[in-house]
Amino acid sequence: MFRPLPLSLLGALVLAAADAPPPKSALDKPTLEAYVRHLYLLKPELTVQVLEPKPSELLPGYLDVRLRISQGKASQELSLMVSKDGGKILQGNVYDVNNNPFKPELDKIKTQFQPALGTAGAPVVLVVFSDLQCPHCKEEANMLRQNLITGYPKDVRLYFKDYPLETLHPWARAAAIAGRCVFKQKPDEFWGYHDYIFGHQETISLDTMKNNVMEWAKGVKEIDALQLGQCMDTKATDAEVEAEIAEARSLEVTGTPTMFINGRRIPNAIDWPNLKVIIDNEIEYQKTAKNAGDDCGCEVKLPVPGLPTPGAPAISPVKKK
Q: Fewest CB within a 10 Å sphere: which of 44, 47, 71, 183?
């Protein structure tokens, strides 16, 4: 037979419940920061910024919460999914089988008005975030220039994006600004500049940067050296470089070179045999998938009236030395 609880005991239970602390919520920014600091053993000198949550596009019932972890100018973003009640945190990859698995990256990569080589509309797009002072970038750039377009004259399009790591390479941003000045004046001459800077990397310093560029410009008839010098002096293209840096950070690029092949991230330098296997695989896959390439997510098209709308095996990248 059920016996009612004594009033004194019932009152004690009510008081105990009232004294119990409320459950923690990962939607409380200090709580989430403290949790993440403990989880990843983040050092006190690292700054953690919890950004505003957004509804997850792929996982109903969860919010996409990003944290920016930084020290000085260097930063990295961490993406977490938090349940709407704040009680659960997920970290991992969620894929929609109806879309390219790298669609989030493809949506962020913008290639319009960027230095490019290869056939427009190619089924495979390589986007390289590079630093002109980085020796590993130089090695990869040489490999790409020697093999890519000759090996795939119709099936591959290569885009170059600047990501100067200023804390490591003092003249990298100046070189990126100059490269954008060259591209702005004569797009086809960018690649000559690209090859020259990488080829003379060891002899360039912050103090000699402009002189080196002017020396290169003397031998290029299509380049107005005076205009180029003024562009460099006024840093006229610095905003373009800053936009590339922001894009790299949005993609969580943490080092150079970083390559995206139809959105697939290759976070370290890679040798030609391994790269060739990935490209061949992507060419074959895109014959039926048709969900990437130069017309599928990598490029923002201007809406011009009257014009039609254009319709891996487990391979380990070569680690940086």
A: 44
Q: Which two tokens stand for residue 261?
A: 């092949």
> Which pTM value belongs to this model?
0.75
Q: At what angle do helices 209-218 and 225-233 cross, to 10 degrees?
A: 160
CB-neighbour burial class of residue 273 (10 A; exposed 0-12, middle 13-18, buried 19+): exposed
CA–chain centroid gap for 65, Å, is 18
- 249 and 113 in a common domain: yes
The confidence score (pLDDT) of residue 320 equals: 42
Report mean pLDDT in 10-residue bins for the chain, 321 residues.
55 56 89 94 93 90 92 82 94 85 93 94 97 97 97 97 95 98 96 98 96 95 95 97 95 94 94 96 94 64 34 39 38
Same domain, 270 and 203: yes
Q: Who's near 256: CB < 8 A, 6+ residues apart?
A: 129, 130, 131, 134, 136, 137, 163, 165
Give per-residue burial for 223-259: e unless 16+ CB within 10 Å, then b.
Answer: beeeebbebbeeeebeebbeebbebbbebbbebbbbb
Looking at the domain assignment, is residue 261 inside a domain?
A: yes
The pLDDT assigned to 15 comes to 54
Exposed, middle or buried: residue 14 (CB in 10 Å: 0-12, 13-18, 19+)?
exposed
The answer on 55 and 85 residing in a single domain is: yes
- d(CA 264, CA 100) in angstroms, rounded, equals 10
Contact assessment for residue 62 and residue 80, using Cβ atoms and an 8 Å cutoff = no
pLDDT at 172: 98
Cα dihedral angle (141, 142, 147, 152), rounded to 10 degrees?
30
Separation of alpha carbons 84 and 53, rounded Å: 10
Q: Domain tally for the chain?
A: 2
Distance CA 214, CA 226 (A): 9
In a domain, 313, yes or no: no
d(CA 156, CA 254): 25
Task: In whole angstroms, give the CA distance from residue 189 to residue 181.
Answer: 11
